[in-house]
C-alpha cells in the first residue's frame, strides 16, 4: 500500500520504452543533424543565441543543484555538527570538527541495523512474492486464456481506480483478522507481502508484454511436449527480462518508500521498517543523531538509484507516451 | 493443432476436446490462484468491507452492530470535519498550481538544453527516490523557527523569519512545499519524455509562420502534450487528496486544525479515538470523490488507446 504518486499506468504498455536519445550535435552542424525542438538550431548558433543558451544553462544547473542537492548536502554535514553548532546562528557552511561518531551513535541508539534488516526482508519478500504471483497470473490470462479471464482481468484493473488510502481501515481489519482463516498478520512480514502482490498495474504491464510474444514460439514448445510451467520458465521468462526488471524495481521501491501501511500493521518497534522506525523514535533523539539516521536511511535508496537509473526511469514512463 | 492454444469456441462433438478444455482451465486457474487469493483478501473484500464498515459500530469485543447513518452524523458534527475537507481541497489546489505548472516549465527548458542533461535528470528525480518519511523529517528540521535552514536563508536576504509550521497562515503551504519538493521529479521526467516525441517540423513551420517562442509553446507544445497534461492532472488530484504523511509527521493536524486532512482525520478516528465506524464513513466519502476522478482518468486514457 502506498499513498505516493505511483508511476502512472498510462496508456498502452508494450515493451518498456528506452528514453529516446537525441543524436549528439555534430561538428559540421548541417541542417537536420539535430532533432528540432522549440528553439531552432539556427538561432542557437548566433552570438546572441549562444549567450542566452549558456545563461539559461548555468541558471538551470545552479538552481537545480541548490534545490535538490543542497538540502542533501545540508543533511549529510548537519549530522556531523555538534548540537551546539547545529543550533548556532548564523549556521556554519562546513562543520567545524568532523566527527563521524554520530553515525555510529545513530546506528546503535536507533537500532538502525534491525530496521534496515526488516526493510530488506519486507522489500525482498514482497519482490519475490509479487513476481511469482503476478507473473503466473499474467501468463495465465495472456496465454492460457481461461474462462472468465477477461472478467478477472477487469476486476483486477478496477482496483487501480480505488486509491489505497481510502481502503486503509478495511484492509487493516483484514490483516488483523483474515476472513475465513482468522490469521492475525499484524507484526508479521505477510502483512506487507500479501497486499503488495495484489497489484493490478503489474499484472497489466506483464500481460501486455506476454501478449506480444509470438504464439508460434509457444506452440512449437508445446508440440515438443513442454508443460505450461516449463513454457513459462524456459521461453516466456527469458524473453521478458526487460519488463521483469521494471516490475522488480517498481515493487522494491514501492515497499521501500511506503509509510502508512507498515505504520499500522507493524506496531512493534523490533518489526518496523526503517522509515517508520526513525519517525516513531524521532521525538526522543538529539537532533544530530536523528539527522545522521536520516542520512543512513537515504543511502540505500540513493545507491539503488545510482545503479538502476536507466531501468527506474524506463519504469517511470513504462507503457506511456506512445500516442 | 494443440488445444491449449486453440481459441474458443471448443467444439462439443469431441468429448476429448471438452475434457482437454476443462484441463486447460484447471491449469490456468492453478496459475491464477495466488493472485486471486491476494486480490480477494486485500483488494476486493476491503472494498465491500469499507462500505459495510461505515454503517457499523465496531469495537472488536462485541460483534459489529448496524447503526445506519449514525457514523456519518458523528463525523458531520465534528468541527474538524469541515476543516479537513477545506484543507484537503486547498492542499490539492496549491499542490496543483505549484506541482503541476513547475514540472512542465522545467521539462520544456530541460528539453532545450544540450549539456548536463543526465545530471539534471538525475538530480530532479533524486528526492523522489528518498523514502517520504526521510524527506518530511528533513524538512521538519529546515522549518525549525530558530536555527532552521529556511529562516537562515531569509535572514541572509534581510527578510523577517517565518513561523512555517507553527502558524495557521503558513502551515498548509509549508506542507505543500515539502510535498512538491518530493514529487516534482516524476512529473518533470514524464513531461520530458512526452516532449521528445513532438515532431520537430511542427516547430519549424510555426516559426516560418512567424510564431515567437511563447506562441510556439502555446500552439505546438501544449496541444501536442495535451493528453499527458490531462492524465497527470487527474493523477495529481487523486494523489494529493490522499495526503497523510505530511500532516502526520509535521504538524499533527495543527495549529488549530489548519492542516487536518481527510485521510489524517480518518486515521485519527480509527487509531486515536478507536472509532472505526467514523473513520470508515470518512473513507467512504473520500472514496466516492476520488473514484470520480479515477473514472475520468480511465476514460481519458482508454479513449486515447483507440
TrEMBL record, chain A:
<dbReference type="InterPro" id="IPR035906">
    <property type="entry name" value="MetI-like_sf"/>
</dbReference>
<keyword id="KW-1133">Transmembrane helix</keyword>
<comment type="similarity">
    <text>Belongs to the binding-protein-dependent transport system permease family.</text>
</comment>
<keyword id="KW-0813">Transport</keyword>
<keyword id="KW-0472">Membrane</keyword>
<feature type="transmembrane region" description="Helical">
    <location>
        <begin position="289"/>
        <end position="308"/>
    </location>
</feature>
<dbReference type="Pfam" id="PF00528">
    <property type="entry name" value="BPD_transp_1"/>
</dbReference>
<feature type="domain" description="ABC transmembrane type-1">
    <location>
        <begin position="116"/>
        <end position="308"/>
    </location>
</feature>
<keyword id="KW-1003">Cell membrane</keyword>
<feature type="transmembrane region" description="Helical">
    <location>
        <begin position="190"/>
        <end position="210"/>
    </location>
</feature>
<feature type="region of interest" description="Disordered">
    <location>
        <begin position="1"/>
        <end position="33"/>
    </location>
</feature>
<dbReference type="GO" id="GO:0055085">
    <property type="term" value="P:transmembrane transport"/>
</dbReference>
<feature type="transmembrane region" description="Helical">
    <location>
        <begin position="231"/>
        <end position="256"/>
    </location>
</feature>
<dbReference type="GO" id="GO:0005886">
    <property type="term" value="C:plasma membrane"/>
</dbReference>
<keyword id="KW-0812">Transmembrane</keyword>
<feature type="transmembrane region" description="Helical">
    <location>
        <begin position="153"/>
        <end position="175"/>
    </location>
</feature>
<protein>
    <submittedName>
        <fullName>Binding-protein-dependent transport systems inner membrane component</fullName>
    </submittedName>
</protein>
<feature type="transmembrane region" description="Helical">
    <location>
        <begin position="51"/>
        <end position="74"/>
    </location>
</feature>
<feature type="compositionally biased region" description="Pro residues">
    <location>
        <begin position="1"/>
        <end position="10"/>
    </location>
</feature>
<dbReference type="InterPro" id="IPR000515">
    <property type="entry name" value="MetI-like"/>
</dbReference>
<feature type="transmembrane region" description="Helical">
    <location>
        <begin position="120"/>
        <end position="141"/>
    </location>
</feature>
Automatic annotation (TrEMBL), chain B:
<comment type="similarity">
    <text>Belongs to the binding-protein-dependent transport system permease family.</text>
</comment>
<feature type="transmembrane region" description="Helical">
    <location>
        <begin position="26"/>
        <end position="45"/>
    </location>
</feature>
<keyword id="KW-0812">Transmembrane</keyword>
<dbReference type="InterPro" id="IPR051393">
    <property type="entry name" value="ABC_transporter_permease"/>
</dbReference>
<keyword id="KW-1003">Cell membrane</keyword>
<keyword id="KW-1133">Transmembrane helix</keyword>
<feature type="transmembrane region" description="Helical">
    <location>
        <begin position="122"/>
        <end position="143"/>
    </location>
</feature>
<dbReference type="GO" id="GO:0005886">
    <property type="term" value="C:plasma membrane"/>
</dbReference>
<dbReference type="GO" id="GO:0055085">
    <property type="term" value="P:transmembrane transport"/>
</dbReference>
<feature type="transmembrane region" description="Helical">
    <location>
        <begin position="276"/>
        <end position="298"/>
    </location>
</feature>
<feature type="domain" description="ABC transmembrane type-1">
    <location>
        <begin position="85"/>
        <end position="297"/>
    </location>
</feature>
<feature type="transmembrane region" description="Helical">
    <location>
        <begin position="171"/>
        <end position="194"/>
    </location>
</feature>
<keyword id="KW-0813">Transport</keyword>
<keyword id="KW-0472">Membrane</keyword>
<protein>
    <submittedName>
        <fullName>Binding-protein-dependent transport systems inner membrane component</fullName>
    </submittedName>
</protein>
<feature type="transmembrane region" description="Helical">
    <location>
        <begin position="89"/>
        <end position="110"/>
    </location>
</feature>
<feature type="transmembrane region" description="Helical">
    <location>
        <begin position="227"/>
        <end position="245"/>
    </location>
</feature>
<dbReference type="Pfam" id="PF00528">
    <property type="entry name" value="BPD_transp_1"/>
</dbReference>
<dbReference type="InterPro" id="IPR000515">
    <property type="entry name" value="MetI-like"/>
</dbReference>
<dbReference type="InterPro" id="IPR035906">
    <property type="entry name" value="MetI-like_sf"/>
</dbReference>
